[in-house]
Design brief:
Blueprint lengths: L13 H11 L3 E5 L6 E5 L22 E8 L2 E10 L5 E3 L9
Antiparallel strand pairs: 1-2, 3-4, 4-5
Length: 102
């Protein structure tokens, strides 16, 4: 038995859309309402902070889309590069992260 190919194309970028919606919520913080007894969501997106320099540690879950790339064996790992999670299987990093120097 053979089936006709489906006319419907698989959704592309579904995981990206899902994670974008999830990360969009992370720009809000919940603050106590100064007038009432409840809380409100405060958009921190326009809050500008200087670039992280001089090895300042990131807070837990501060950059959930980032990955730390290590080299070596599990007893002696050197954490030398970073990247961005672009899917469940792939990390986008700079070219020099994979350059063996030869």
């Amino acid at each position: 038995v053979c089936c006709e190919p489906s006319q419907r194309q698989p959704e592309r970028g579904g995981k990206s859309k899902e994670m974008c919606k999830k990360y969009a919520e992370s720009v809000y913080i919940i603050l106590p309402d100064p007038i009432g007894s409840g809380t409100f969501k405060y958009d921190t997106c326009a809050v500008v902070e200087p670039l992280i320099t001089n090895g300042k540690d990131a807070e837990a879950r501060e950059y959930p889309h980032m990955a730390l790339i290590g080299y070596g064996n599990k007893n002696s790992i050197s954490w030398l590069c970073g990247g961005s999670l672009i899917s469940e299987r792939y990390i986008l990093s700079a070219a020099h992260c994979t350059d063996s120097g030869s």
